[in-house]
Amino acid sequence: MKLRDALVALAPDVDPGEAELLSVTAHTASRSLAREYGLVWCPAFQNVLIHMGKRQRGYCGHYTRDIGERLKALKLKTLVLHWGAAYAGTLDENNGLVVTARNQPFVVSTQRGLSVRLRTGGPVEGKSPRLLRDHGMERRPALHRLAA
To answer: Which domain holds residue 35?
Structure first.
């Protein structure tokens, strides 16, 4: 299934044109950022290069922020962007964009098989598009809406 089709399937009121625009923008941004970051084969090796000062960017959080900024510029009406963080504040922390249909419940599944049912709502007050820590909830993803 293509990203556009998966987005349209989220809810009956998702605009197919908006889903297509988000899909194309996200894919294009990802490829562009990989070149800009000088991405290498393995994420762990990319992290080593960043720590050595050989690369400036390329963590999952960099992708989340940079792609998120491009998607926010689209001023989406039927889809909502969120910043998701699994295992926030640990060495296993992993960040990514989560896209939901406006006002729809959804499930976040992490790479280790944990699932958490969340309800979307308005933006978290006073939060910029950055990681919202998981407030002490062990092994549960943190999530907040990217501010418009």
So the answer is: 3-145
